[in-house]
Amino acid sequence: MEVRATAKGITVSPRKVRLILDRLPGLTVDQALALLRYIQSPHARSISKVVLSAASNAENNFDMDIDELVIKRAYADEGRMMKRFRPRARGRVSPLLKRSSHITIILDERGV
C-alpha cells in the first residue's frame, strides 16, 4: 500500500529541489532522514519534514511499521510563480520569476 505526503507552495525552484529528491528513492525513512540531515542545502530541511509527514501518515492512518517503509517515489512539481520586475538601464525592465514547488513523497512497504 502506498502512502503519500505533499507540501505545497514551498518557495524554492523545483529544479533545485529535484537535485536532492533524485537521491531518495530506494532508501528507508531512517536512511533518507540521515542523508537529508547532512546535505549542505537549506531546502533539505523542508524535504525532511515531508518525509516525516509521510511516515506519520503511514503509522497513524494505516498502522504500518515505520522500519519497513521505503521511499518509492519523490518528485517536485512547479507551483505558483510570482512575477516581479527589476528595473534596468534606459527605463527598461527585466522579468523576475520567483518560483515555488510542490514536493511529494510516496512511501511503500519493503518487499511489496
Structural class based on helices, strands and sheet pairing: alpha+beta
The CATH superfamily label reads Ribosomal protein L22/L17
Please give the CATH architecture: Alpha-Beta Complex
Text of the CATH class: Alpha Beta
> Spans of 5+ residues with little confidence (pLDDT < 50)?
none
Rg of Cα set? 17 Å
**What proportion of the residues is helical, as a percent range?**
25-40%
How does the overall form come out from the CA principal axes? elongated
* Arithmetic mean pLDDT: 95
What's the number of extended β-strand segments? Answer: 5
Strand content: 25-35%
Structural key phrases:
single chain; 3-stranded antiparallel sheet; Ribosomal Protein L22, Chain A; elongated; 5 strands; 112 residues; alpha+beta
Can you characterise this structure?
The protein has one domain (3-109): Ribosomal protein L22/L17 (Ribosomal Protein L22, Chain A), CATH 3.90.470.10. By secondary structure, it is of the alpha+beta class. The mean pLDDT is 95. A hairpin with a 5-residue loop joins strand 3 and strand 4 (93-98). The chain is built from 3 helices and 5 strands, in the order βαααββββ. It has a 3-stranded antiparallel beta sheet. It has a two-stranded antiparallel ribbon with strand order 3-4.
Quick gist of this model?
This protein has 112 residues and is α+β, with helices and mostly antiparallel strands. It is 32% helix and 35% strand.
Element layout with pairings:
Layout: E1 3-10, H1 14-21, H2 29-37, H3 44-62, E2 69-78, E3 82-87, E4 93-98, E5 101-109
Antiparallel strand pairs: 1-5, 2-5, 3-4
